[in-house]
Amino acid sequence: MNVKIYSFIFVMWVLIIIGGGIVVEFVGPISLSEDIEPMITSGIKVVLALFLIFIWIFTLTKIKNWIFKSQAKS
Amino acid sequence: MEEKIIAAIIVSAIAFFAIYAFTPILIKFLQKRNLTVKDVNKSDNVMIPRPGGISILIGIVASEITLYFFFPISEILAIIITSILGFSVGIVDDRKTMGGWFKPLALAFCAAPILLLGAYDSNLDFPLFGSVKIPSLYLALVVFMIPITGNTINSIDVLNGVASGVTTIASFALAISLFILQNYEIGLACLGLAFASLAFYKYHKFPSRIFPGDSGSVMFGATYGVIAIVGGVEVIAAIAILPAIINSFLFLSSVKKIVEHREIKNPTSHTDDFKLKSTNDNHAPITLVRLLIAKKPLSEKQICNEILKLSAFSGVLAVITTFMMLVTI
Fold it and tell me: How many of the other CB atoms lie within 10 Å of CB of A2?
């Protein structure tokens, strides 16, 4: 049984849940002053969401490389 | 409730038996017309009929139309039209190999019925934390979702029975989740997809008697994606197909661009006893299959079983996530 690949899926799952929590609790409620265009607020939220996705992909890429190297070595 | 149970039985039976009965006829038809491709993972020159997407189209559309007679709601209409459009994109790719960007772009247009029929809710639900309202962003999500699920199922269609097997497990998990969330109509639509893919799996499993082709695998993915959107279970749906998403993620993070999978270096090669082993070529992408055989060569059947076990694990995580949706901290 490929425990490392199951762990990879589990880590993805945990990251999805944590990411969802950050989006709901912190990114979603962001609201700037009423004078500012709602599009700008949405743009800021998009940038933050993309930043979260970048962290998600960076973390998973590191895990993927580690799994592949350790599988190939053993 | 009685009406829903009757609908569940009829829809499941139509989806399953339409494909179960029609696929052998399609196999003979494709063989007679010499519409076959070589199964590259078999030692002898086995030629397999393709595409089986026509059979999948009949099963899914017949069951969803039946469901529409029971529940004439725009969400089910969106599922029917998007599925047909997904099939159309796939059949074009079956007939003529298109560039890497064709499928994502064409599948983005397949999301049009969802938007035009207004068959979506712009709240994105997350487990434990509740939902977030993102009206503008959600439109982008709808447009991206169909290409993502369509291509994800399409790119995992590399071994006998994997695309149909993964779709079967993920669809049953998603149907269970929809029933838990008391979204019965869309749950029944998902049950149709689950039984359709199960019936096709009977002919697609190792050793395959037919391949779904791009038309079949893209249609599986597009139908799965539209169900996730109209059912409001995007996050759960993504979790249920995590092995397929991992495969796409591994592929994209290795290749770093969108290309047709036929255009890249094969990440696997064969041993003398025709097991699959990881290639020594450092430039070949790391895919889920390559990750599974990085340690030691495995037979095609062993790899298929491993991927289906990973899918079952993801399916369980998806159902757990559904229960977490019912709790807010």
Answer: 16
Q: Which residues of A3-30 are buried (b: 16+ CB within 10 A; e: fewer)?
A: ebbeebbeebbebbbebbbbbbeebbee
For B219-274, how does the pLDDT look when each residue is reduced to its tens digit (9 = 90+)?
Answer: 999 999 999 999 999 999 999 999 999 888 887 777 666 666 666 667 788 888 88
Residues in chain A: 74
Chain B contact for A9, CB < 8 A?
Answer: yes
Give the angle subtended at the CA of B220 by the CAs of A59 and B248, to the nearest 5°: 20
Amino acid B166 reads V
How many other CB atoms are there within 10 angstroms of residue B153's CB atom? 32
For residue B145 the two structure tokens come to 């979702």
Which phi and psi (to 5°) does residue A35 adopt?
-70, -25
Residue B142 near residue B252, CB atoms below 8 Å: no
Question: Minimal Cα–Cα distance from B201 to chain A, Å?
Answer: 24
The enclosing H or E element of B48 equals strand B47-49
- Interface predicted TM-score of the whole assembly (ipTM), two decimals: 0.87
CB B238 within 8 Å of CB B80? no
State pTM to two decimals: 0.92
Query: Backbone phi, then psi, for B270, in 5-degree steps?
Result: -110, 145
Distance CA B215, CA B168 (A): 17
Question: Hey, is the C-beta of A3 within 8 angstroms of any chain B C-beta?
Answer: no
Query: Could you read off the pLDDT of B58-108 as tens digits, one per residue?
Result: 999 999 999 999 999 999 999 999 999 999 999 998 888 777 788 889 999
Residues of B in contact with A45 (CB under 8 A): 134, 137
β-partners of residue B38 are: B47
